[in-house]
């Protein structure tokens, strides 16, 4: 088991997939990180030297991922609500924001649209 | 909620007795709602279904001690049967086992008939024109060397015959003579083998390697260029290079091991001319090159060891055997690779140090001390488009034909409206020779088919008619197609 950015990964896991498991870090960014540290796309966590692992952790800690990215999202929703916009109110009420009907099928909106949105 | 009556047999399940069991037991105690004859027909007197299926289905049997009402329902039974339904999956293959099975090379078949007139290849056999259209066997030690150098491919039919043998073709004699001539003159032959699909390009490389091994050359084989350039092995920038080059430590370690195993005899008789204190293990001068190759134990230090080995092999004025450097699948080495630089740009294949080493040699940048050959083969199966390479090979071929006095040969020119050309590729292929491998003639086809028939793999009389038939079916004697037409029809 190997730690990257405080998360424990199996040695058999692809480095790219491990990077993508962080919130707000997608395939494009993962590819760029791999290229930056000259890691080939098929590399597994277990084959990385400790130096690269610490460098990866350092790189990730400078990026806007996980709780930082979530906070940005929540701030955006809060800003809308504080301004009193329609979108902000709909978020606060847990209702669809973009003009969808509310008669039925609003499960996604009820699940996701809240001020303290988690991802 | 279940119905009070069993809907299948219309029997009220009030008693703790099986409802659709043998008739002698049900008829007395259960209370049939419908007419009695209906319940009696539950078991067919004769059935063509399997015995287990034909047997009457036993309904849920409550324990004898349970009092009162027990529910007979489909859902309750399902839970009970779930336990029995564990599928037998068999043995799960170990990691890497399936790949090993896919990549295995079988070189002999004990069921094939040994061919009495088959002789082993001698060092000078491939250069002799009188051996054209003869099938000759690879000696045991050369088999081992070629196997170590990964010269055999899984797509070739080695596993059908008693021992591996090759057909000496006109092109083989031509190539072997060119190699021998350049070694005699201490020059380096630079040649690209090209031709149609399954025409025998890789086999031509194998024959060149066999010739080199028989004559105590040092053979370095890069079996597939795509393994190097499709971003499937580790890479790292080499420090202090400008423009930056990249090494592939894991692949290079594998390559060093292959070189070591394939050339053990020759390397143990060749000695270093300078000391190598920078390596993990200090190598003084006048050490066998085998010891130098043995230093590479881990991928970390493999590239410096390979570089030291290459520098020793190509050191001028040293006593070295001729060298043969081979690569199959040239198109992959002549394109932009799938690797990315730290600035996220695609790395050109020629910036990968191993490929650069080969292309330098192919382009004429390296002189081997005792001469030798740099051979590359194109592939028609797994090849990306490499317009510059295709154009350059066509140009070289046309120039050679024009040089031989053929009239009306036009050298193809670049398309002025096409942007995909690559200057670096053109520079490498500016002065190579091209050997085109086409179909065999009927004499060679006959020799090969006689060998197949003598091995018991072709169950037909080999006469002019059969040979012509197969030769024509194979598009004027394309060897792979002949195999498909005559040999592989038997494969199960």
What is the structure about, briefly put?
With 119 residues, chain A is mostly helical. Chain A has helices at 15-20, 27-36, 50-61, 67-83, 86-93, 107-112; strands at 2-4, 7-9. The mean pLDDT of chain A is 93.
Description:
The complex is a heterodimer of chains A (119) and B (492). Chain A has helices at 15-20, 27-36, 50-61, 67-83, 86-93, 107-112, and strands at residues 2-4, 7-9. With 119 residues, chain A is mostly helical. Chain A folds into two domains: 2-61, Helicase, Ruva Protein, domain 3; 67-112, 30s ribosomal protein s13, domain 2, CATH 4.10.910. The longest helix of chain A has 17 residues, at 67-83. Chain B is an alpha/beta fold. Chain B has helices at 23-29, 36-40, 51-54, 74-82, 97-103, 140-148, 170-184, 201-214, 226-229, 249-262, 264-268, 289-294, 302-313, 330-333, 353-363, 387-403, 423-428, 442-454, 464-473, 479-487; strands at residues 11-12, 31-32, 134-137, 165-168, 188-195, 218-222, 236-237, 246-247, 323-328, 336-340, 346-348, 372-377, 433-437. In chain B, the strands form five sheets. In chain B, strands 6-9-12-5-13 form a five-stranded parallel β-sheet, with helices on both faces. In chain B, strands 1-2 form a two-stranded antiparallel sheet. In chain B, strand 7 and strand 8 form a beta hairpin. The A-B interface holds A 31-32, 34-38, 40-43, 47 and B 231-237, 246, 338-344.
Number of domains of chain A: 2
Choose one word for the global shape of chain B.
globular
So what's the oligomer here?
Answer: heterodimer
Secondary-structure-derived class of chain B: alpha/beta
Give the strand tally of chain A. 2
The largest sheet of chain A, given as strand count, sense and whether it forms a barrel, is:
2 strands, antiparallel
Query: How would the global form of chain A be characterised?
Result: elongated
CATH architecture of the largest domain in chain A: Orthogonal Bundle
User: What is the typical, i.e. mean, pLDDT of chain A?
Assistant: 93
The DSSP helix count of chain A reads 6
**Residues in β-strands, percent of chain A:** 5-15%
The total of beta strands of chain B comes to 13
* Distance linking N and C termini of chain A: 27 Å
Order of helices and strands of chain A: EEHHHHHH
Helix content of chain A: 40-55%
Strand content of the residues of chain B, in percent?
5-15%
Helix content of chain B: 25-40%
Main beta-sheet annotation of chain B? 5 strands, parallel
What do the pLDDT scores of chain B average to?
A: 86
What is the CATH fold-level name of the largest domain in chain A?
Helicase, Ruva Protein, domain 3
Low-confidence stretches of chain B: 14-45
Main location (chain B): mitochondrion
Pfam families (chain B): DAP3
Region (Disordered) (chain B): 49-72
Family (chain B): Belongs to the mitochondrion-specific ribosomal protein mS29 family.
């Amino acid at each position: 088991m190997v730690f990257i950015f405080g998360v424990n990964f199996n040695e058999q896991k692809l480095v790219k997939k491990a990077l993508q498991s962080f919130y707000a870090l997608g395939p494009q960014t993962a590819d760029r990180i791999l290229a930056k540290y000259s890691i080939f796309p098929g590399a597994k966590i277990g084959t990385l030297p400790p130096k690269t692992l610490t460098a990866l952790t350092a790189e990730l800690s400078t990026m806007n991922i996980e709780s930082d990215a979530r906070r940005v999202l929540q701030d955006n929703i809060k800003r809308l609500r504080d301004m009193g916009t329609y979108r902000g109110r709909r978020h606060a009420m847990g209702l669809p924001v973009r003009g969808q009907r509310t008669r039925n099928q609003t499960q996604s909106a009820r699940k996701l649209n809240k001020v303290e949105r988690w991802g | 909620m279940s119905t009070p009556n069993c809907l299948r047999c219309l029997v009220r399940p009030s008693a703790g007795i099986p409802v659709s069991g043998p008739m002698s037991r049900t008829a007395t105690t259960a209370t049939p709602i419908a007419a009695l004859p209906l319940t009696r027909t539950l078991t067919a007197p004769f059935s063509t279904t399997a015995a287990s299926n034909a047997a009457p289905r036993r309904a849920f049997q409550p324990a004898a001690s349970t009092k009162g009402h027990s529910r007979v329902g489909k859902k309750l039974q399902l839970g009970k049967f779930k336990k029995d339904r564990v599928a037998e999956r068999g043995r799960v293959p170990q990691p890497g086992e399936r790949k090993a099975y896919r990549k295995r090379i079988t070189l002999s078949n004990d069921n094939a008939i040994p061919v009495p007139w088959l002789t082993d290849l001698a060092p000078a056999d491939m250069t002799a024109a009188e051996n054209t259209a003869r099938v000759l066997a690879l000696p045991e030690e050369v088999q081992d060397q070629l196997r170590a150098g990964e010269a055999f491919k899984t797509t070739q039919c080695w596993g059908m015959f008693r021992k591996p043998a090759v057909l000496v073709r006109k092109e083989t004699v031509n190539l072997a003579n060119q190699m021998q001539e350049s070694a005699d003159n201490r020059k380096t032959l630079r040649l690209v083998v090209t031709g149609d699909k399954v025409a025998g390009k890789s086999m031509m490389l194998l024959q060149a390697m066999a010739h080199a091994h028989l004559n105590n050359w040092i053979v370095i084989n890069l079996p597939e260029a795509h393994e190097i350039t499709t971003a499937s092995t580790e890479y790292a920038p080499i420090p202090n290079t400008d423009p930056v080059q990249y090494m592939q430590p894991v692949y290079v370690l594998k390559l060093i091991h292959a070189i070591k195993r394939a050339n053990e005899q020759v390397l143990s008789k060749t000695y270093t001319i300078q000391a190598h204190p920078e390596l993990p293990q200090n190598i003084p001068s006048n050490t066998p090159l085998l010891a130098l190759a043995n230093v590479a134990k881990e991928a970390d230090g493999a590239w410096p060891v390979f570089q030291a080995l290459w520098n020793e092999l190509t050191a001028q004025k040293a006593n070295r055997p001729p060298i043969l450097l081979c690569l199959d699948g040239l198109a992959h080495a002549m394109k932009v690779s799938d690797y990315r630089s730290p600035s996220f740009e695609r790395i050109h294949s020629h910036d990968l140090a191993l490929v650069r080493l080969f292309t330098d040699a192919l382009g004429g940048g390296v002189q081997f001390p005792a001469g030798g050959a740099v051979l590359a083969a194109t592939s028609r199966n797994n090849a990306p488009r490499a317009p510059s390479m295709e154009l350059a090979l066509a140009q070289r071929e046309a120039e050679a034909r024009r040089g031989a006095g053929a009239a009306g040969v036009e050298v193809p020119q670049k398309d002025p409206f096409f942007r995909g050309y690559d200057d670096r590729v053109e520079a490498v292929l500016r002065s190579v020779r091209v050997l085109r491998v086409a179909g065999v003639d009927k004499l060679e086809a006959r020799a090969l088919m006689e060998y197949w028939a003598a091995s018991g793999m072709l169950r037909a009389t080999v006469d002019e008619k059969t040979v012509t038939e197969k030769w024509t079916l194979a598009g004027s004697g394309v060897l792979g197609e002949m195999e498909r037409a005559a040999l592989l029809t038997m494969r199960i």
